[in-house]
Amino acid sequence: MISPRPLRLALPSLAQLWKQAAVALAYYAAAQFSIAYATLPEAASTPVWFAGGVAVGAMLSFGVDLWLAVFISILVLEFVFFKGWLGLENLMLAIAITFMATLGKVLAAVWSDRLTQSRSPLDSPGDVVRFILAAFLSHLPIGMLCAALVCTFGKAPWVAYRQVFITWWLSDAFGIVLVAPLLLAWSSTRSLDLFQFRTAIRQHWLEAAAMVALVIGISEVALVGDYPVEYLLIPVIVWAAFRFRSPGATLIMVLLSLLAVISTAQGRGSFARASMNESLLLLQSCIAVIALTTLLLCAVLHQNDQSKQALRDANQSLEDRVQQRTAELAEANAAIVDLNERLKQENLRMAAELDVVRQIQDMILPTPEDLSAIQTLDVSAFSDLADEDSTDYFDVLETDGIITLSVGIVGGRGLESGVLMLMVQTAVRTLAELRDRNSVRFLQTLNRTLYKNIERMSTQQRLTLAVLNYLNGSLSISGQHEDLVVVRASGRVERVSMTDLILPLGLEFDITAFTKRASVELQPGDGIVLYTSSLPSAVDENGIMYGLDRLYKVIAQTWTQPAVFVRRAVIQDVRQHMGQENVLDNLSLLVLKRRL
Fold it and tell me: Taking the model in full, what pTM does it have?
């Protein structure tokens, strides 16, 4: 599709003057050829008017701004035809005919442009038909008016009005149909057809020479030899359309028209009649029908070429996109491979760190022998380090009859958690050896120590810690952990919230304002259970959590048994609930009972 052309009537710019001059000269030359076959020279009536095709083809190809060149050329011609220098009447007739004739050419160009929606009239069969209609309909009223003018001014008798009107109308229309397509086909807007024409000429120049020879030969036989074989020209023109597209076909059509007009005007050929006017009109009507068929065929071929080109462009675009996508996938695959390799290395590193943390945990956690050495309490503990996201810590030690329990969770990953856990264990034992029995002051001192060390390590690890001091049945609690489960000798379960007793350690240097304390009295047979959050949140294959109610039930049912039996019953019940599901977090449990 060509770009829309401006359809405004405006004076040309200096850059367009050469186009104006070229069109004016071409129109004048075509008019001089046509006027040689005038049947009513006084009325400027000729059955051949190729100049009309020059004007309309130029305006459709290069813009309607070229109307000025057409106007000037027509004015000169009409001034000469009607001898405008002989008197005012002749001058007025020349000017009037000039305006009418120019208007006809502009109307043909504008209507064709509008009907084809600014596409080339040769782009589709529908556009070809619209172009033909515009050529004939635009000059119908022009022919009537011009015939009336020449009859009114006495250049032709009124009895000849019908002949002058039909001749004027058809000669202009036939000229447009035969010549304008040549200019359109060879304009820059038909780049695809011109490219194919040039390529075909280089590759098939012998065929091109053969076509020209056949046109001349058949025309000689049909138009000079008086043999009715004009139909033999049709295969040649179709051949030209298929091989050389619209540039070649329209060139053959114009060549045929020139040869046919010259021969028929000399009274030779199948179309020769007593009246040259009638002979030339009959000839051009035949050639116009052939031209219409040829233009329709060229339009179909042009659409086919455009479809092939669009398909090639789409295929090339698809290939480019496939190559681009393949490159992107290759790049993504390389990135994935690299990432997998790094993940493998990272997993190996974390697995190694996790092993180290497990070793640290095994080394610092109290052994069963340490727990059984406590005379006043029955203590049993369990801890399973399942992943590197957090590390459970607990410790039980006895100093001068006072039992100190510390339970915490170190958040974060890897070796840093193990180091922090070791720091906590060392600090707790140090403070316990200093005989500081105040759990609140104990935690405040521990927090300041950890805060400074965490800053030095530049780590984001933090921990929650609860410190419990037991002496003669009294349990003092300070710190933060999961709710404390208090179990009476009868198996009755009580809960003591520990979430509001303190902030996580290591966040603030001074936690005095946030430190609180709670206390619980334990009678013989009473005890406590401490656990990590992963125990009640353990899920089965259906996503159902173990829950606190089930935990309390198992504890109550087994409380009359030793602490180790209670601990084993709980862990076994949790694992039975989980079935094949893996433990996703650390699992820790501490059971403490006051001996009877």
Answer: 0.57
